[in-house]
Amino acid sequence: MRTVQTFILRLLVDSDHPDAVRGALQAANEAGEPLPFRDASALLLLLKRLAAEQALAKPAASDNS
User: Fold this and answer.
1) Is residue 43 in a domain?
2) What are the DSSP calls for 15-57, one per residue?
3) Is the pLDDT of residue 54 over 90?
4) Residue 37 falls within a domain, yes or no?
């Protein structure tokens, strides 16, 4: 089953290094702190981790309904 997951992505752009990818990522439906990343590969790992966590949490939440 497919689901739609929404994330808040904050990119920090350094005018001296405009190609650098840095910032913070947060699942939109969670109240926790944003998770920082220092490069594109770290961002991709965070996206995969948060997506997997949300996918695992959804069946458990629907079982309680």
Assistant:
1) yes
2) TTBTT---EEEEETT--SPPEEESSHHHHHHHHHHHHHHHHHH
3) no
4) yes
Spatial separation of the C-alpha atoms in residues 37 and 45, rounded to whole Å: 9
CB 23 within 8 A of CB 37: yes
Element (H, E) at 63: helix 40-63
State which residues form the domain around 16.
Answer: 7-63
Count up the domains in the chain and report the number: 1
As given in the structure block, the two tokens for residue 6 are 């929404």
Contact between residue 22 and residue 11 where contact means Cβ atoms under 8 Å apart: yes
Instruction: Find the length of the chain.
Output: 65
Which pLDDT tens digit goes with each residue over 1-24? 777 888 899 999 999 988 899 999
Secondary element (H or E) of residue 2: none
Instruction: Note whether residue 59 is domain-resident.
Output: yes
